[in-house]
User: What shape does this take?
Amino acid sequence: MNSKITLSVIKADVGGYVGHSCIHSDLLEMAKERLGKAREQDVLIDFHVARCGDDLELIMTHTHGPDSETIHKLAWNTFVACTEVAKELKLYGAGQDLLSDAFTGTVKGMGPGVAEIEFEERKSEPVIIFMADKTSPGAWNLPLYKIFADPFNTAGLVIDPAMHEGFVFEVLDAYGRKKITFSCPEEMYELLMFIGAMRRYMIRSVRRKDGTIAAVASTQKLSLIAGKYIGKDDPVLIVRCQSGLPAVGEVLEPFAFAHIVEGWMRGSHRGPLMPVAFYEANPSRFDGPPRVIAAGFQISHGKLIGPRDLFDDPAFDEARRKANEIANYLRMHGSFEPHRLGLEDLEYTTMDKLMKKLESRFIPE
Ligand code: F6R
Ligand code: MG
Ligand code: MG
Assistant: This one.
């Protein structure tokens, strides 16, 4: 029997209510029913069903390890059952993130986003699960850098000897389908050179130098999987906290700055990532601006004690106010860059069709 616990967060957009702004409660109920049965049958130790905007988030603990066919199949079947509910209610984009009709052993590459972390439960195990809507996995690069490499953010990098050695970042090249690790603080500048290009390079995991796993992010890019625009990837991130790892407050701190990410309307605009309480994770204005929620749990013998809604704190009001100010400013640009992404980056590319239509009208200059 595996003494380690696995925390799996598997998410998909299987139907929006209304449009792409939120999820109907019937989908949440269906997901709870399915995962509840799996817990009764001891497939799961525990679960929590959450949502961020139009994304359904299955948070599960078990002992099957990461990439378990049993757990992925459970998630897939849950999404299929929720899709049926979404179809019945004619919710928007029912089943949009399920790119195949059949399960083939893993949900990876099939549409859903996945972050899984396996660990020996510590004496006390505080974790934060971040869930975002209307943006893509590169959105975690800046906060992960600040949490694990910036002493101005994380006082523990200076004060706690357990963190003095620093952290190792695994970075994925989403276009080259390659990965590389950077050891920090020694390779901070090299790391920044890559992760600053957050569309292509995405931090996938962070470990302490002694090998302790500290963070894992979902890095699936739907557009790369499907070869055409399906939706934004709306990523998740798991971070373990405290006693030799960054404190809960150090992990939340980067989000007090609503940094600019890609996503928002039609996945084609830059906007601020607004940290919000669970009940405010309903991106409506211009289908946004992009949102992030933070669910805090204490894990006890695999049981999920929580969640605590960690951005439900007036200390993040200023970040929200600033995000609205930046959103107003960017919106004034309408269809102009840098609000709209550059042509090469546009997810919905009408450009091909438009070019064909206008081709004959372009004359040499
Ligand atoms: C962005 C997103 C929405 C849709 C937009 C148009 O990730 O999901 O902004 O792109 O509402 O949706 P369609 O093309 O389905 O009408
Ligand atoms: Mg959607
Ligand atoms: Mg979404």
Notes: The longest helix spans residues 69-88. The chain is about 25% helix and 25% strand.
